[in-house]
Amino acid sequence: MKHLIVGNGIAGINAAKAIREMDTTAAIVMVSDETFPPYSRPMISYVLEGSEPHEKLPLFAGNVYEDLNITPVLGNRVAQLDAKKKIVRLENGADIEFETLLIASGADARHIRVPGSELGNIFTMRTQKDVLDQLKAVSQGVENALVLGGGLVGFKAAHALLKRGIKVTMLITSPYPLAMQVDETAGKMILRELEDHGLTVKVGVSVTAFDGDATVENARLDSGETLDCDLVIVGKGVDPSLRFIEQNDIQTGYGILVDKYLCSSIPNIYAAGDAAETFDIARQTRWINAIWPEAAIQGRIAGFNMSGRKVSCPGSLGRNVMRIYGLDVMTMGLANPENTDNFEIIQAGGEKTGAYRRLVFHGDILAGAVLINQIEQGGMLRAMIENRVPVRIPRSCLMSLDFNYSQLL
Amino acid sequence: MKQVIVNPEKCVGCMQCMLACAVAHAKSESLFAAVQETPKPRPRVHVGAGLFNQGFPNRCRHCDPAPCQLACLTGAIFRDAATHTVFINPDRCINCASCAMACPYGVLRFHEDTAAPPGKTVAVKCDNCDARVARGKIPACVEVCKTGALIYDEMGHALDQKTRQVARTMSSDAAAQGLPDTVALYNTLKQATVKAGTAIRR
Ligand SMILES: Cc1cc2nc3c(=O)[nH]c(=O)nc-3n(C[C@H](O)[C@H](O)[C@H](O)COP(=O)(O)OP(=O)(O)OC[C@H]3O[C@@H](n4cnc5c(N)ncnc54)[C@H](O)[C@@H]3O)c2cc1C
Ligand code: SF4
Ligand code: SF4
């Protein structure tokens, strides 16, 4: 058997591990344009912050390719997939044949396209190289940083720069940060916490142009305002890296559409991680949940299926947890449904009490939750959302800060 | 291989296991010195109150596969092949709490720890008392548990015991289910006497 894996992120690596658990002799080829050893992508913001050194990024102590007997093809992007001939062509023109293929190409950060966006010191934040570049700029002296976007990555970038003592302004189009993940009450608590720690947040504005000589010096906003800035981090979300796939070759939505075995519309071609569009358990519809734990588990499941062991994936669940100075924020599932008609939402606490709970029920099924502070028991709520078990115990128990496992017995 | 086995119906909620666990993970490993230490030693087993206020010693199950391990953002969580214990490497942990969101039992806590770099908050959970076991001792929580809610045994042997116990309750007139905690304690005493060979009548 010859397996080809595109991408050496956590989805690709976990797939290779699963294949090796099943089959010690199958050939595994792994292609990636990143030459750095497989690493913790979420850790890059800690490297920017300075709390973890760059050397700590790699996930494995030794050479994981040797240990798993993988043939790595690094520093090369797949340019084209020929699904019928079962061949991928690399940018350097070389062809690689496969019997089974895993598309674990992850996602690329979205760039901003306005006049001046090609100036120096305007960065996205996705790879370890992005952070090395940012650190180089920081070491040359940065006073005013601008972060575009109030999503997870924008927020992490802002947090890291603030910790370095740099003045940071965050521009967001929504009325509060993390609007995709949390409801307004939680969002406002987060906003207040960030502002209390020196972040300037401007809501409802966006950049129309950047000015500067070689590097960026200021940003012009659609409000007419001009902001001085010598470093910009664009956190405007990600798009699945699928440019090597011809339209109509494989069924795609926003990502590669996969069935419960993580197989695409073509037998023997699988997808996992940020590139895959799976079934969202809380939303009950197709969705890309571009988060690490999903990429990790999907990679593993895809690997088993590729090596002939049928393992099904129950679907994916969006979730995140972040520490924002004094606030620990955990959000999962459908935490803030747009149309609340069919949902029952209970919430308690808030800014004054220092802790907050919000539970979103669909009938007697828990569909989403937001917790601020005392988040240690959040995994049980996550399990309840994921397993779609009817909630039989009083809802007040789930809301309680003393909620614990024994109450479910 | 012996492991810690929990019999929740026997827990009377005395929290001795929590104290013993904190002491076992203190620098000094002594109660009197432990209270003075920084960082303050904390337990890895947590006795929570159930819906009827019954006690429940909640600890890491060392699941296989371990959801926390798959969710860990940095590869800090790993399984020791020899003991099947799921460990957290405090040097790699970034205190992100991704593991807490993954653990279906809510056993992870975040604080400074003697095993972690000084001043660093990390994820902490049960380590099966690997240091004590290596010295030939049994896990601290089991050592202090007087009711049999926590035992250290081979899983197969413990299951046999349990089967026999269930069989016995079915043939006697004892109400086997839904016991309030005083009765659970009574049951424990009864079981102990049965083991000692003396049957007592209710
Ligand atoms: C700053 C930051 C913070 C984050 N924080 C969190 C967090 O706290 N919690 C969380 O759950 N998630 C977080 N994430 C998201 C998480 O990192 C991703 O969901 C996860 O890494 C996805 O893994 P993957 O294997 O699917 O893809 P990736 O990690 O993107 O790996 C894909 C690899 O494939 C390569 N590739 C792509 N296209 C090609 C091609 N055509 N040819 C060859 N190679 C190709 C890429 O270069 C890349 O190396 C964060 C992400 C970032 C950037
Ligand atoms: S921490 Fe939780 S998920 Fe991880 S092994 Fe222990 S019980 Fe299982
Ligand atoms: S808190 Fe530590 S152990 Fe838990 S997921 Fe994060 S890095 Fe891993």
Structure explained in plain terms:
The complex is a heterodimer of chains A (409) and B (202). Chain A is an alpha/beta fold and 409 residues long. Chain A is 22% helix and 30% strand. In chain A, helix 1 (10-22) packs parallel to helix 7. With 202 residues, chain B is of the alpha+beta class. Chain B has one domain (2-175): Alpha-Beta Plaits (2-Layer Sandwich). Helix content of chain B is 32%, strand content 15%. Chain B has helices at 16-24, 31-34, 67-71, 98-102, 130-134, 140-144, 155-171, 181-195, and strands at residues 2-6, 46-49, 55-58, 77-79, 86-88, 109-111, 122-124, 150-154. In chain B, the strands form 4 sheets. In chain B, strands 1-8 form a two-stranded antiparallel sheet. In chain B, a hairpin with a 5-residue loop joins strand 2 and strand 3. Classes of the chains: A alpha/beta (409), B alpha+beta (202). At the A-B interface, helix 7, strand 22, strand 23 and helix 8 of A face strand 2, strand 3, helix 3 and helix 4 of B.
Radius of gyration of chain A: 22 Å
Bound molecule types: flavin-adenine dinucleotide, iron/sulfur cluster
The total count of helices of chain B amounts to 8
How many discrete structural domains of chain A?
3
Oligomer status: heterodimer
Q: Give a count of the beta strands of chain A, DSSP E runs of length 2 or more.
A: 26
Unreliable residue runs of chain B:
197-202
Mean pLDDT, all residues of chain A? 95
Figure out the total of helices of chain A: 9
Largest interface: A-B, 38 and 32 residues
CATH superfamily of the largest domain in chain A, called what?
FAD/NAD(P)-binding domain
User: How many DSSP E strands of chain B?
Assistant: 8
Number of domains of chain B: 1
Helix content of chain B: 25-40%
**What is the CATH class of the largest domain in chain A?**
Alpha Beta
Second CATH tier, the architecture of the largest domain in chain A: 3-Layer(bba) Sandwich
* Helical/strand content category of chain A: alpha/beta
CATH-assigned fold name of the largest domain in chain A: FAD/NAD(P)-binding domain
